[in-house]
Amino acid sequence: VGCSQSESQEEKVTLIAHRGAKNLAPEHTLTAYNKAVELGTDFIEIDLRMTKDGQLISIHDETVDRTTNGEGEVSQFTLAELEQLDAGSWFSNEYQGEKIPTLEEIFDTFGKNTNYFIETRPMNGELVMEDELLRLIEEKGLKDYVIIQSFSRDSLKKIHQQNSEIPLVQLLYVNLTKEVREDEVKEYATGVGPYAPTIDKEFVERMHEVGLEVYVWFDNKDEKEFMPKVLSYGVDAVFTDFLDNTVEVMSQD
Ligand code: G3P
Ligand code: CA
Asked: One Pfam family from the UniProt entry (predicted)?
């Protein structure tokens, strides 16, 4: 992947800023992403959703309720309607007027200055976002700067059929982690993304033996407990909600 990573860690663990620097600014805003890039993240994480008029935007929840001053399902808004919403005040008045960014705005803002860890998902059971995502990556010349992650095998398989060069990460739910069929995942993905408390050193070694990288995610509340453990297992990458702290801890190693 394009950007150079920090050389200061003993095993060079890749850092993914989960929803941007989400402890410092409202998640999934350009400001949160900008802070993450300034702090030296390797990747910014983007949770994709699609508007009623087919535009890809970055927002985690199915509804706008938690992270904006609006109400309702994201898929029922046009982009023009979503642009009227304030995506910053819920976090702090200082961020009043922040917008939900489109994927294109994020790509245009950061270009090749960072890498993008992009999560796809079916919407209402349909694989609607993959074609537009691949088109935008191609148009912006960013294929070497992107990893695509999903809990949906079908989404990743659809992407792999159209473009076998982009690295894909199969996210794993808590109760699937021990059941991963690595031979099946290997057919389309380059890595797996398990939930931190569900893995042990043996799992990481097993994935590495078959050539799958391990990208670990946390629940906000358990990151501080499990980060040192998973790093000791030799994982390849971690999502972090506390990027400033994680960068500091790793730079001390
Ligand atoms: O994408 C990995 C991790 O972010 C999964 O959890 O719910 O924050 O997307 P979520
Ligand atoms: Ca995510």
From this structure: GDPD
Cα–Cα–Cα angle for 100, 103, 105, rounded to 5 degrees: 75
Distance between CA 202 and CA 181 in Å, rounded? 15
Inter-residue contact 33 to 199 (CB < 8 Å): no
From ligand 1's centre to the CA of 77, what distance in Å? 23
Structure token digits, residue 94? 């200082």
Residues catalogued as catalytic: 18, 60
- Contact between residue 77 and residue 109 where contact means Cβ atoms under 8 Å apart: no
- The predicted-structure confidence for 100-118, as pLDDT tens digits, reads as follows 999 999 999 999 999 999 9
**Are the C-beta atoms of 244 and 23 separated by less than 8 Å?**
yes
Q: Name the closest-CA residue to atom 1, ligand 1.
A: 119
CA of 69 to the centre of ligand 1 (A): 23
pLDDT tens, 121-132? Answer: 999 899 999 999
pTM (2 d.p.): 0.94
CA 91 to chain centre: 20
